[in-house]
Amino acid sequence: MARTATIVRETSESKVELSLNLDGTGKTDIDTSVPFYNHMMTALGKHSLIDLTIKATGDTDIDAHHTVEDIAIVFGEALKQALGDKRGIRRFADATVPLDEALVKAVVDISGRPYCVCTGEPEGFEYCMIGGHFTGSLVRHVMESIAMHAGICLHLQVISGRDPHHIAEAEFKALARALRFAIEPDPRVDGIPSTKGAL
Which of 171, 164, 39 is nearest to 106 (CA)? Predict the structure, then answer.
């Protein structure tokens, strides 16, 4: 059974069309209308091996916030839909990813219970403008939105970092690598990986 999803979400603030394939090769076609976010979502697809297509427009003349948030919501919803009953997946995974001076660890549980903990971002990171449109505070907001709408538990820890671009990119790549292994079929798992029989 194909683990794919396509979702279109349109509000007065944005329009998002997103398709993904969990069993892809990391092929991406990303146009979020926010240049730095294009870079981050491309990295997320590439390093998770999730094929990902995003076409989005929104009121970026006001702020990138609405469009960025809505894409994260739709990505989370699509991830949840494509995972189905989560039969046969590894479920838990972690990844530690460096980018020059930045080092970030992500731990995920495809649990069905949404939770997000982000720690370690340096003081003032949330106020940094990255790429001219993307504030540092949006990274945590994206992670929270994905976790809530995908129904996953995500812990993200910035261990070190100085350059805001490097920190943000390492955060997205760490999530990507952890997702890659957590959603991967495990040949030794028969059924749903939970003592409760459901995730």
Answer: 171
Residues 6+ apart with CB under 8 A from 63: none
Tens-digit pLDDT string for the chain (199 aa):
899 999 999 999 999 999 999 999 999 999 999 999 999 999 999 999 999 999 999 999 999 999 999 999 999 999 999 999 999 999 999 999 999 999 999 999 999 999 999 999 999 999 999 998 999 999 999 999 999 999 999 999 999 999 999 999 999 999 999 999 999 999 999 999 999 989 9
Tokens of 155: 């812990």
The Cα angle at residue 26 between residues 21 and 27, in degrees rounded to 5: 85
Which CA distances in Å does 141 have to 106, 133, 175? 15, 15, 14
